[in-house]
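Two quick folds needed for the group meeting slides. Do the first one here.
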Amino acid sequence: MLRFQPFPALSQADDQGLLAMGGDLSVNTLVSAYAQGVFPWFNEGQPILWWSPDPRLVLIPNEIRISRSLRKSIKNKFTISCNRAFEQVITGCALRGNAGQNDTQGHRQSGEATWITQDMHDAYIELHKLGYAHSVEVWSKGELVGGLYGVCLGRVFFGESMFSSQTDASKAALVYLCNHLHEKGFTLIDCQVASDHLLTLGAKEISRNEFVAALVDINIHEKNADFATAFPCEFDDLKSLLSR
């Protein structure tokens, strides 16, 4: 059974949002961190760094902006799945095989290894096995060409990273995720920090206090075990978003 791990008061974070250093990446610590509005982000060779930025970038699921060109790409180029290839997705995010792409925080991809260290990889694989972390996969002609992953608690999806090896593949993953979350009554997607990439898709900044208020009903012991149930896998399934 999980044990709640309290973090320092979020008001103690510095101007960049850095709240704490050290600790571990156990399931207890990670789930407790997300429930309190805190996430890990550090590079190889650094101690584990815990962040809670103010303001916080979020995306309301039914407010995602879908351009005509993106609709065309989604309709004609891709098929979608959920939780079918979690480890492949996190590996794709870690390797960032294509230069010039962005992850969910808008960090530029360089074709080199990223902040997703082996310890981070293993920790999120464990979260996935336990039903806390989920992935969306984008396929083209049977090949995985994009996807995203994150942690789900209560009615909040905490986005971690995305990757794309074809134009619009990661955006397609986000559109299908937003449709699914809207259908299931989720209130927001945590995008962590601002980026032009996500702002153009409809994300917006809110205060840290507003963000934490959205987490008040989270129970770390409750998993979204049926998260992948009825996930939209075809273009015609995107009724909630495309009917706007």
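Then this one, please, same format:
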Amino acid sequence: MTAVRSWAWRIGPLLVAALVWELLVRTGVLDAQFFPPLHSILQGFVEAFTAERIYADIAVTLQRLGIAFVVAALLGIPLAIGIGRSQVIDGISRPFVDTLYPVPKVALLPMIILLTGAGEVPLLLVTGLTAFLQITISVSGAVRSIDTTLLEAGSNFGATGVRHITRVVLPALMPAIFSALRTALGLCLVTLIVVEFLSSRTGLGAFVAISWQTLSVNLLYVGVLVTAVLGHGLNALLRIIERKSLPWNVSWAGAAP
């Protein structure tokens, strides 16, 4: 019953928003040319998925997202631990991380294209950099917040060097790492859609751009909604992985399945 109620609270506001949208369009408050009614958007879904092009765009976006996100995580987490545990690494890395973090990564796209040429590499670099910086900053802050009593206890029981990282620091960081990964994944997807919109002929961002250029407004909304569902699904997948990997995490206590 709790799960049903939880889903009702999640879906209910979306249904209300959809009904209000339809009402405003039908009464003329919203211009149907730019805010199509729901049945027109549903027809766009049928058209897009019947034509099958959107399947290829989804696959391309997922492939780019996977490559950029995984590489960013593999590089960002170790660097973040190093920043949090070593003043030398912190002193060397922090100026670059703090300088690049507030810069809109899309603004770097023209420079990266000049350096690497057009193609997949600029898209992956810009997208991966977004996730990399978010993971690095979030996880390094969490490293500094680890209870010193826990660190001292690990050292007293012989956990030193690599064992100290793998047996003490990493387990203590895992909830923060998953939280950073979820945030970074969302930002990574947003950045990827934007760079696809600007400089690619494939992917969901390109699908939205082409729909906009051809004034296929219903297909434009299809692209946006598919992106939203994709982002929500990936976030939910990370939450499931976190719950299965960290059953001891108290933040899951009382959570709906």
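Slide caption for protein two: Residues 252-257 have pLDDT under 50 and may be disordered.
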